[in-house]
Design brief:
This protein has one domain: Hotdog Thioesterase (Thiol Ester Dehydrase, Chain A), CATH 3.10.129. The protein has two helices and eight strands, in the order ββββαββββα. It has a six-stranded antiparallel β-sheet, with helices on one face. A hairpin with a 4-residue loop joins β6 and β7. It is an alpha+beta fold.
Length: 172
């Protein structure tokens, strides 16, 4: 992933309320990502708060984590995107207490979309779930609504890296 800015990998803004990776969301998962070669990677272990069936994480939550990891790939390009398409294939249950490695990588980048793949694997390499996604740029209308809800986001819409921008306070 040559030329990517690792400062965009994890949200370091004052907002940080994203359910999957926001550090200020008390109900969230608070996952943090790292780069390993050409992959965005995080670790997740389901607990009893995350169950769908007794003893297993809810599949929708696993899909949401895969989706978020693929979206972080686009953030590395400083592209703000929304999920246009997400397809998830479940191969095994994600047992409560069993660590999963989440990996995501870009497969194609065009002016109109970022395409990515991701997977959740057990420590022995067994795939629990795999996903593909297409990510589309946020619209001007959506940008305006996001800035109205949290004015500090406006600084992140510019092409400058986040480290060169002054922080802004979240709305009261």
């Amino acid at each position: 992933m040559a030329g990517l800015d690792p400062a965009w990998l994890n949200d370091r803004s004052e907002f940080q309320l994203n359910f999957i990776h926001g550090l200020r969301n008390p109900a969230g998962l608070r996952l943090q990502y790292r780069l390993e070669d050409d992959r965005v990677v995080t670790d997740y272990t389901a607990d009893e708060r995350h169950v769908g069936f007794p003893g297993f994480a809810h599949g929708g939550l696993v899909a949401a984590i895969l989706d978020d990891a693929m979206g972080r790939c686009a953030a590395l390009l400083r592209r703000w995107v929304v999920t246009g398409r997400l397809e998830t294939r479940f191969r095994a249950g994600a047992a409560v207490g069993q660590p999963l490695r989440i990996e995501a990588w870009m497969t194609r980048v065009t002016a109109r979309a970022v395409h990515a793949e991701s997977r959740a694997v057990l420590p022995d390499g067994t795939a629990v779930a795999e996903a593909t996604g297409t990510y589309l740029p946020i619209t001007r209308d959506m940008q305006a609504k996001m800035v109205a809800a949290w004015p500090g986001f406006e600084a992140y819409l510019s092409p400058q890296p986040p480290s060169s921008r002054p922080p802004r306070d979240p709305p009261p």
